Amino acid sequence: MLRLAIGITCPLTASAIEPGKHGTLSFVLENDLFYGNDRHYTNGVRLVWVPRSDTSTPEWAIKLARLVPWFPKQGEIRHGYAFGQSMFVPSNITVANPPLDERPYAGWLYGSIGLGVELGKQLDQFGVSLGIVGPSSLAEQTQKFIHDVVGADEPQGWDTQLGDELGINLAYQRSWRRFATTTFLGNQLDFTPHVGAALGNVFTYANAGVTLRYGEELPSDYGPPRIQPGLPGSADFAPVSDFGWYLFAGIEGRAVAHNIFLDGNTFRDSRSVEKEPLVGDLQFGFVLDWSDIRFSYTHVLRSREFQAQKNDDNFGAFSVSAKF
After folding, report:
1. How confident is the model at residue 115 (pLDDT cuts 50, 70, 90)?
2. Is residue 192 part of a domain?
3. Which of 82, 124, 146, 241 is 20 to 30 A from 173 via CA?
C-alpha cells in the first residue's frame, strides 16, 4: 500500500489565500471500511496546514529544496506541514499468528514539510517526511480503539508487527496543469500529467500518471488532497465562484524498488513478503467548493502489491479543507 504516508504535503495552488485568512487546514481520511474491507492498507489519517502565501518559508527548507538539481530556481516557494498515521494489516485480523506469506502488521507515524513552486501551469513539489515505523507508531492502539468503538473484530496479530525503525523519506513530483483542455457538454475538461519519485528507507519508487477533471468552472488546483504517494493533490484551494464542483478521474503507475511495509525492517529481522515491482492505481471522485470550505471524496482501486495477494484492493478517501 504504497499510497500511505510518505511525503509530499502538496502545498500549492495557483492562487493565494485571500487577505484576512491565515492559511488552509485540511483533514484527510483513507479507509477500506468504506467498501466493507479490513485488510492490507486499512487506514490513514493526515492533517495538513498550508500558511498563506506571504508567510515566510523556513530558510533551511529552501536550501534543502535547492539541492534538488531540477527544482525551479525561479518562482515563489510555498510551504506546508503535515502530521499523519497509517496502518497495514493482513487479510484476516482475527488470526493471532498470520501466515508468513500474508502482509505484515505495521504502523507509520510521521511529520512532513512540503515545498512547492508553480511556474505558469507547471507545479514542482518537494517533501521530506520523518517518523517512526513499528510499535511506537501507536497504530495497534489506534486500530483496537476504533474497532472497540464501532464493535468490529478485535485485531489479534499486532504482536507480529514490524519492529521500531526511524523512517525518513524524500519525495519529488512535477505536474503540468491543464496540459490539454477542451469543452464537453458545455463544461470544461482538462488533463494534468505528472511524474515523480521517492527515496528513503520507507519508500523508494518512481511514479507517473495523469488526472482528468470535468466541471463547469475548473479552479486553478491539482485535485483534492490525498495521502501520498499517488495522484497529485492540493491542500490549498481557490474556487472561482461562491459554489463550484468538478468530477475527476486518474491513473498512476509506480515502479517500486523498496516498500518497508512489504520488505520488512531494514536493520533487523522481521516479517516480509515478496512485493510486486509494478503497482497501479485507478481513482475517481468529486470535489465541492465554497468560498472557504472544500469537500472531496475519492474511490481508489489498487492492483496487487505482493505476490501472494489474492485480490486487488479498493478504499475510499474523504477530505475536508477550510480557510482560517
Report:
1. confident
2. yes
3. 241
